[in-house]
Amino acid sequence: MSSRHIGLNLIYLVPGETGGTEVVARELLPELIAARPQFRFTLFVNRETAESGDGFFQQLAPCVTVPVRARRRADWVRGEQQLLPRLARAAGVDLVHSLANTGPAWGRFRRVVTIHDLIHRVHREAHFGLRGLGMGMLVSLAARRSDRVIADSRSTREDLERLLGLDPSKIDVAPLGVRAATAQGSLGEEEVRRRQRLGDRKILLSVSAKRPHKNLARLLEAMSLLPAGERPVLVLPGYPTPYEQELRRRASELGLAEDVRLLGWLPDEELEGHYAAAACFVFPSLYEGFGLPVLEAMARGVPVACSGRGSLAEVAGEAAELFDPEDPADIARAVTHILGDPGLAERLRAAGRAQAARFSWQQTAAATLESYERALGLG
């Protein structure tokens, strides 16, 4: 196959602040580059990434700094729509792949965009303040002007067809992979319990951004339905948003102040320690483009209770206890079922590991490269 030059649009990525789309970039890019040694790759990054000092992306491939700061939404858009096309042309790329829902609408190169979800259409409250303005226009523009659109799941592909009217023949599905557990350096259970003042109580873990559609308010209501003497501690790591104050207020109203730990984004060794200590992982989201946290918990042998909506049922398969995310009593039922039945918990541990093993970043890379080849007219 002839050599091609691929540009990867990472202008959106602020290290340590971008959540799941940063995980995707860090896991997928090494596999993409390793799978096609005959392709050249150039990464287009913002100033925050260029100045971060961790060197991860710079070690993967040559980087071009787009002179904007992505923490400012207007700068991000200007970098992507005005500066990136010119810089990509100067670098001589044949194709630009934008990895996080939006991408340049013009340029003398082929365009591929990954649209992880259409949350801005399904749950408009999910985006806060200025960050949410114009999202619908930018995602729709990228979808229309790109040669190929990649979706993480069949559910998201159906949303792209139904809500944006995209031709199904233009959409490629590339399910995400699962991060391997980093046992080395993982925080021990005793230290996890000490830091979070957990004592010997069972731990209910939910890794999630603090956003309304993640449905954490109903999870708190479900917790309040559990008998106080049998109630686990609910630990909620994930990057903070303005909505977190509403969750703290709600927890206090429900009398859960001693039963909930609202944490920020945890470094890997701390997060792995929490997975290892958890008796159950619960994920009540109303809408996901894929549902990566569910698979990550399964891969680590944590029994999972999760919403049965959309892509979550697709990803979890038969390996989780599913519930109606709009019914706190049903959430409480699913959690109680796992915590109170060791046999069920053990069956879900085994089924979860088997389900997670079906997803790998190598497969994601292979499907992504096939999309590139279609866009370039090579396949």
How does this structure look, described?
- The chain is 45% helix and 14% strand.
- By secondary structure, the chain is of the alpha/beta class.
- The strands form two sheets. It has a seven-stranded parallel sheet with strand order 3-2-1-4-5-6-7, sandwiched between helices.
- α1 crosses α17 and α13 crosses α16 (342-356).
- The termini are close together.
Distance between the termini: 10 Å
Order of helices and strands: EHEHHEHEEHHHEHEHEHEHEHEHEHEHHH
Describe the main β-sheet briefly.
Answer: 7 strands, parallel
Using only CA atoms, what is the Rg?
A: 21 Å
Keywords:
379 residues, six-stranded parallel β-sheet, seven-stranded parallel β-sheet, alpha/beta
Provide the fold topology:
Layout: E1 5-10, H1 20-35, E2 40-45, H2 47-50, H3 56-60, E3 63-65, H4 73-91, E4 95-98, E5 110-115, H5 119-122, H6 129-132, H7 135-145, E6 148-151, H8 154-164, E7 171-173, H9 189-196, E8 203-205, H10 216-224, E9 233-236, H11 244-253, E10 260-262, H12 268-277, E11 280-283, H13 292-299, E12 304-307, H14 310-316, E13 321-323, H15 328-340, H16 342-356, H17 361-375
Parallel strand pairs: 1-2, 1-4, 2-3, 4-5, 5-6, 6-7, 8-9, 8-11, 9-10, 11-12, 12-13
Helix pairs in contact: 1-17, 9-12, 10-15, 13-16
